[in-house]
Amino acid sequence: MEIKILQEKKNALFSRNEVKIEVKNEVTPSKEESKKIIAKKFKVDESLIRIRDIIGKFGVSVFVVTVDIYDSIEEFNRIVKKTKQELEAEKNILEEKKKAEEETKAAEEEAKKAEKEAKVVAKVETEKPTEETSPDATGMTPGKGGLDVPSNGGAEDKEVKEEKVEEKSE
């Protein structure tokens, strides 16, 4: 790629250099390629460069690139108005950041809720009676030697014995 400076003009009012460059290339250079080339040539940051236009003629591999090179980023932001696409892109980026922040907040809240629930479950488990004294689903309490004892303290056994005694006495 061959570069030739056609015109260079200092515009003090807008704090910029207005430059026209002739570029010889097989393919029309993109704005990004042009920015890189100009940044190397003039030894400035790419964020200070605004490509106005890239003009080429049919059948000729010579392109004229019109460029503004600003002195500072503040001057660039003050003078150059953003296009609709740039404004929409910034808006989308801000929305994505906001969504990401909301998701992290939601995840943190869920983690806090889960932690509180775990604490409550831990408290409930520590307050439960021991396994030996609590009756299971059958109403039987585990007794000595692996034998199950009725959870009513043997009251059923007394009633059964009393009924047998009454039957014998009759």
**Spans where pLDDT lies below 50 across 5 or more residues:** none
Give the termini distance in whole angstroms: 125 Å
Percentage beta strand: 15-25%
Please give the count of helices: 4
Principal-axes shape call: rod-shaped
Q: Please give the share of residues in helix.
A: 40-55%
Count of discrete structural domains: 2
Supply the CATH architecture of the largest domain: 2-Layer Sandwich
Main sheet specs: 4 strands, antiparallel
Strand order of the largest sheet: 1-2-4-3
Q: Which oligomerization state do the chains in this entry correspond to? A: single chain
Structural class determined from secondary elements: alpha+beta
The number of distinct β-strands equals 6
CATH topology-level name of the largest domain: Alpha-Beta Plaits
pLDDT averaged residue by residue: 82
How do the SSEs run, as a string of H and E? EEHEEHHEEH
- Rg, please? 43 Å
Q: Briefly, what CATH class of the largest domain?
A: Alpha Beta
